[in-house]
Amino acid sequence: MLFAAWAEAMDFSNLFAIPWDETAPFTTPDGLANPAQAIAVLETVAAEVEAQYDSFNVSWGDVFRLRMGEVDFPANGGPGYLGIFQVLSFAPDADDRFRAVHGDSHIAAIEFADPVRAMVLTSYGNATQPHSPHSGDQLELSARKELRPVWRSRPEIKAHLAARETV
C-alpha cells in the first residue's frame, strides 16, 4: 500500500537516474534521479497512509478488495504502471476501502502437450446474475492467486455437471 501511494505521488517522467532504454531492457530504468525528493515524498505519503489506516504498514489487500455481493476477499492485482502482472482498476467503496471494478477477469494458461492441459480463472465467476451460485464463486481463487482446471473431456464435464436439461 505504501509503495503504491509513493508511486502515485511521484513524477514518473523524471523518476529515474537512467531512464528506460529499449536496448537495455534488463538494466533500465535504474536509480532514482532525486533520492532526497523520493525520501521526502515517502515521508509525506507514509504519514497520510498512517492517518487514514492507522498504520503506514497496511497491506494492499486490507485496502483493495475483491467484492461481489456478500463475497469479500483481499485483492492482489492493481495498476499496470506499478508493474503488477494482474491489472485491476478500483473504485472507492463505502467503508474507506476500494472495490475492484475493471481489469483481468479471465486468465488462461494452456499447455499444448499430449494431452492438452489448461488452467483458467474467471474471477467474477461463470454467471453475473445476482442469485446464481456461480456469481463471484472464483474470487477466492483469484485472492489466492490460483487457477482452476478446465474440464474438457466428457467424463470431466459430467463429473462437474450441476444440472442437465433436455428440451
TrEMBL record:
Q: What is this protein called?
A: Penicillin acylase family protein
Q: Which SUPFAM superfamilies does this entry report, sorted A to Z?
A: N-terminal nucleophile aminohydrolases (Ntn hydrolases)
What GO molecular functions are on record for this protein? Answer: hydrolase activity
Q: InterPro entries of this UniProt entry? A: Ntn_hydrolases_N, Penicillin_amidase_A-knob, S45
Give start-end of the signal peptide: none
UniProt organism field: Thermocoleostomius sinensis A174
For this chain's UniProt record, which GO biological process terms are given? antibiotic biosynthetic process
Q: Which Pfam families match?
A: Penicil_amidase
